[in-house]
């Protein structure tokens, strides 16, 4: 084992031995043998290269990085160079207080990131001219896909055609096709500059503004006509352009989507970047993704929290509006802070400058007699030229441009460009240098209304103020840099510094996703190696890294299954069996693939009910497309019958989808691709160390057995793959893939197996320690659990103590709560992971027992629930410092309950318990604009 592996695993050898002793096992292998069913157990070492030390792995990756060529890209098409302000790079992107945070489901310990996400919504709302925006989507293309289905639903599916401008970004067009096909929506390509006559059955119109060739179109009359015809208008747009141009809201759009990348988020070969999604008020209830709202806490102070629809998938399942779970929180935060740091005036100046550069270039081209588009923002498209020859000439001057077809080339400028860049490209064209900037776009295309007048966009223009603001915000939150985050199903393990380091290397961060292939050899080699490593870890034959979240991997996997059945002529196979315990994204993804969800029951022990499964198979003899199971189950148990489940479905002609979110219990001990799975998605942001970023980014690779490989999403280095495009960029969130590459490269086969074994050991240790007060809801062989356990807190409700009370009280003890009420309402699911030390596990168990004692006091009548440490939790500093504090317990009990812990550095929640109902009744999702104060 490498020293890295020893450090990644939080348990020392002594800890391991002591914990095994308590559980009554001799060795990790003995424990593993008892926990993991013999029918699936596989202890042959993973076929990975011998592991490297941190320094060696960084050196090896450096060599790969060097094979990427850094050429300035003027490619555009939705991705632009940008200057990430260093104060944001250092204090956010490279700061574990920000990147290791979890999705803000526990709002009291997430006020810092929720505040910024709230401002993201404000910024997007203001720039797009819409009423409400969500807190980011996965990318622009998938956001357009979500808009398509929202518009379809808005007219209750009564109309079936959508007009799509052929001037949309090509990747957006491809994604729209992916989403439309399974649902039977007809996409009709249009040229929006021509009058449109056929509105029969049309529910929506999608345009890109400015369009992919750079033209700023006149869209008002198109919007008017669409509305007269009862159709919705969807605009894909660009935030920088919108600081200068008329807003889509003013033009008449109903839904606006786009990418916030160019607000300070590195190109990174295509991602991760935060997509945005904004709508008119009317459609707010059907928006996909997360929405941050403002509510109040028990003390009446304003507080942020995720609005109700956030948990929509778990409530509405296959009727959910979307399968989006992990989105791009960290990148949305960066884009917002970029806007705060610059403010609206500087942003508009920047946009104007970029526009003037483009106009200067356009005028230079015209002088040389080249045909160009006239009314542009930042992209100029040259037509009637030899695209290949021209692209080569410009490359010789040091720039990538965008050949669109044999006779057309686009050149896009951005905030990192200057007049010298314009002149260098003009020289390549044989044109003369421009000495002065051309005028910006005509005034009547510019917006006149003010925007982003709120204080937050004006108060932090000095670096000192920004630095302190960032510190204040992150101090409000609990991330992994403070305490363990024992989230069941989400695997909050160490995100090691050496894994994070390569993310900001320019060779990885400054590459355009559509850069010429000979400039991205290092990237594509690294990606191919990671695919191979992940295949070795899972037993699958092929892996696609394109999906940028688990939900997208699910969708890609189901589409592959669908395409496979269709290729066999089995078009009638349309039923997706899903156990009742499944994660909400499963049924939501099945619905997007237009599969019919049939729920399979679970038995009393929480396992898939084999009788019910067989009954369902008999009921639909030739229609089973797939079963989606999670393994180990979402109940945290290695189900003994999993091979029988797989066999039964295979016999019925169906495919087996194994949700790989729980892979942290499997790597090195069993392989889903070997014990019955045909396809799985993995969550690299769970098992393979990509940090959660406060709700994203993530990567959700989809792995398949050989027969499904041709149906994986197509990309640039696997020509034989024919599946639908799943993300806008060919390799999704490419710039964070080095994190997982580093992890596997440093752990090696032994390290990975030991990590899994320690994750299982820690979960069983916690279960064992807590069992006396908290019943473990589901267990497998010998009363053991897998890598997580569900504790039953429902009996405590008889004396008023709710699962919320426990979760909020844990905050006073300095912890983030475990997963609450999933998969079983009223319970907590604890996953400690291998990265926590025994001391931290013990501290957590002490907190849980402390809480139990507090419950007992209520049960025994020594305390009143309605005014107890539990019901009043979490305790803010403001509250306990009141001079006249009239409480039946002491200040120390309130905020320093575990005397063994050194509270000289205590976590203080910034707000008291938040009122969710109030927040949903009074939905406030962005700052009021100044005009609303007048
Ligand atoms: C996390 C999770 C998902 C969804 O993954 P995202 O990356 O959040 O989209 C799906 N299934 C299970 C069981 C999960 O825990």
From TrEMBL:
GO terms for cellular component:
cytosol; glycine cleavage complex
Q: What is its EC number?
A: 1.4.4.2
Pfam (any one): GDC-P
For this protein's source organism, the top of the classification is:
Bacteria, Pseudomonadati, Pseudomonadota, Gammaproteobacteria, Arenicellales
- Cofactor(s) annotated in UniProt: pyridoxal 5'-phosphate
Carrying N6-(pyridoxal phosphate)lysine, the residues are: 686
Q: Does the keyword Transferase apply?
A: no
Stated name of the protein:
Glycine dehydrogenase (decarboxylating)
Swiss-Prot/TrEMBL GO biological process terms: glycine decarboxylation via glycine cleavage system
């Amino acid at each position: 084992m490498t020293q890295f592996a020893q450090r990644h695993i939080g348990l020392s050898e002594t800890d391991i031995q002591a914990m095994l002793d308590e559980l009554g096992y001799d060795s990790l292998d003995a424990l593993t043998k008892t926990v993991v069913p013999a029918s699936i157990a596989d202890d042959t070492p993973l076929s990975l290269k011998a592991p490297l030390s941190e320094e060696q792995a960084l050196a090896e990756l450096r060599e790969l990085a060097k094979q990427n060529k850094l050429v300035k890209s003027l490619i555009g098409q939705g991705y632009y160079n940008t200057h990430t302000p260093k104060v944001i790079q250092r204090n956010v992107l490279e700061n574990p207080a920000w990147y290791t945070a979890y999705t803000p489901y526990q709002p009291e310990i997430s006020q810092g990131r929720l505040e910024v996400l709230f401002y993201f919504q404000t910024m997007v709302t203001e720039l797009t001219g819409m009423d409400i925006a969500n807190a980011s989507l996965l990318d622009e293309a998938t956001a357009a896909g979500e808009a398509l289905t929202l518009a379809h639903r808005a007219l209750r599916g009564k109309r079936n055609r959508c007009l799509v401008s052929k001037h949309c970004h090509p990747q957006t067009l491809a994604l729209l096709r992916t989403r439309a096909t399974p649902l039977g929506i007809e996409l009709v390509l249009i040229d929006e500059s021509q009058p449109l006559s056929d509105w029969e059955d049309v529910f929506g119109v999608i345009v890109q503004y400015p369009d992919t060739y750079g033209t700023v179109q006149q869209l008002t009359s198109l919007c008017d006509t669409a509305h007269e015809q009862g159709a919705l208008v969807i605009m894909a747009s660009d935030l920088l352009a919108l600081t200068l141009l008329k807003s889509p809201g003013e033009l008449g759009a109903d839904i606006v989507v786009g990418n916030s990348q160019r607000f300070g988020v590195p190109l990174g070969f295509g991602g991760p970047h935060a997509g945005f999604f904004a709508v008119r008020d009317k459609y707010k209830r059907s928006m996909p993704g997360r929405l941050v709202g403002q509510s109040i806490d028990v003390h009446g102070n304003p507080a942020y929290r995720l609005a109700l629809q956030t948990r929509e998938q778990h409530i509405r399942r296959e009727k959910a509006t979307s399968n989006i779970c992990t989105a791009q929180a960290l990148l949305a935060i960066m884009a917002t802070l970029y806007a705060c740091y610059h403010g609206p005036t500087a942003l508009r100046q920047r946009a104007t400058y970029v526009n003037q550069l483009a106009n200067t270039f356009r005028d230079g081209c015209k002088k040389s007699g080249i045909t160009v588009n006239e009314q542009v923002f930042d992209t100029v498209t040259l037509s009637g030229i030899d695209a290949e020859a021209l692209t080569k000439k410009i490359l010789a001057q040091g720039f990538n441009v965008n050949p669109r077809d044999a006779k057309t080339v686009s050149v896009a400028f951005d905030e990192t460009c200057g007049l010298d860049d314009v002149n260098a490209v003009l020289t390549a064209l044989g044109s003369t240098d421009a000495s002065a900037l051309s005028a910006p776009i005509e005034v009547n295309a510019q917006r006149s209304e003010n925007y982003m007048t709120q204080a937050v966009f004006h108060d932090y223009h000095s670096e000192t103020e920004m630095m302190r603001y960032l510190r204040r915000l992150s101090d409000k939150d609990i991330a992994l840099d403070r305490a363990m985050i024992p989230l069941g199903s989400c695997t909050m393990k160490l995100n090691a510094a050496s894994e994070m380091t390569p993310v900001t290397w320019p060779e990885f961060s400054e590459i355009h996703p559509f850069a010429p292939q000979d400039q991205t050899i290092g990237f594509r080699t690294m990606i191919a190696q990671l695919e191979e490593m992940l295949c070795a870890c899972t037993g699958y034959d092929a892996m696609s890294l394109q999906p940028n979240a688990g939900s997208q991997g699910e969708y890609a996997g189901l589409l592959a299954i669908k395409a496979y059945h269709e290729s066999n002529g089995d078009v009638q196979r349309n039923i997706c069996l899903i156990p009742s315990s499944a994660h909400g994204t499963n049924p939501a993804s099945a619905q997007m693939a237009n599969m019919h969800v049939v729920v399979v029951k679970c038995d009393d022990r929480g396992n898939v009910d084999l009788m019910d499964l067989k009954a369902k198979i008999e009921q639909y003899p030739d229609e089973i497309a797939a079963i989606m199971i999670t393994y180990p189950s979402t109940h945290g148990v290695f189900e003994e019958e999993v091979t029988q489940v797989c066999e039964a479905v295979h016999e019925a002609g169906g495919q087996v989808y194994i949700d790989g979110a729980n892979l942290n219990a499997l790597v090195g001990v069993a392989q889903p691709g070997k014990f019955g799975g045909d396809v799985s998605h993995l969550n690299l942001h769970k098992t393979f160390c990509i940090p959660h970023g406060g709700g994203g980014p993530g990567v959700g690779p989809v792995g398949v057995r050989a027969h499904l490989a041709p149906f994986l999403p197509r990309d640039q280095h696997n020509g034989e793959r024919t599946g639908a495009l799943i993300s806008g960029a060919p390799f999704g969130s490419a710039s964070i893939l080095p994190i997982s590459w580093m992890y596997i490269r440093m752990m090696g086969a032994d390290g990975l197996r030991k990590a899994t074994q320690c994750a299982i050991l820690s979960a069983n240790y916690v279960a064992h320690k807590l069992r006396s007060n908290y019943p473990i809801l589901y267990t497998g062989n010998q009363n053991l659990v897998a890598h997580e356990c569900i504790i039953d807190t429902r009996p405590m409700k008889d004396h008023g103590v709710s699962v919320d009370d426990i979760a909020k009280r844990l905050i006073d003890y300095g912890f983030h709560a475990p997963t609450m009420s999933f998969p079983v309402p009223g319970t907590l699911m604890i996953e400690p992971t291998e990265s926590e030390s025994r001391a931290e596990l013990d501290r957590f168990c002490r907190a849980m027992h402390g809480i139990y004692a507090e419950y007992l006091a209520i049960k025994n009548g020594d305390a009143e629930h309605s005014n107890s440490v539990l019901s009043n939790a979490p305790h803010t500093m403001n509250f306990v410092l009141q001079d006249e504090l009239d409480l039946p317990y002491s200040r120390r009990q309130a905020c320093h309950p575990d005397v063994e812990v050194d509270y000289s550095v205590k976590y203080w929640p910034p707000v008291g318990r938040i009122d969710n109902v109030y927040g949903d009744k009074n939905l406030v999702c962005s700052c009021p604009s100044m005009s609303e104060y007048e």
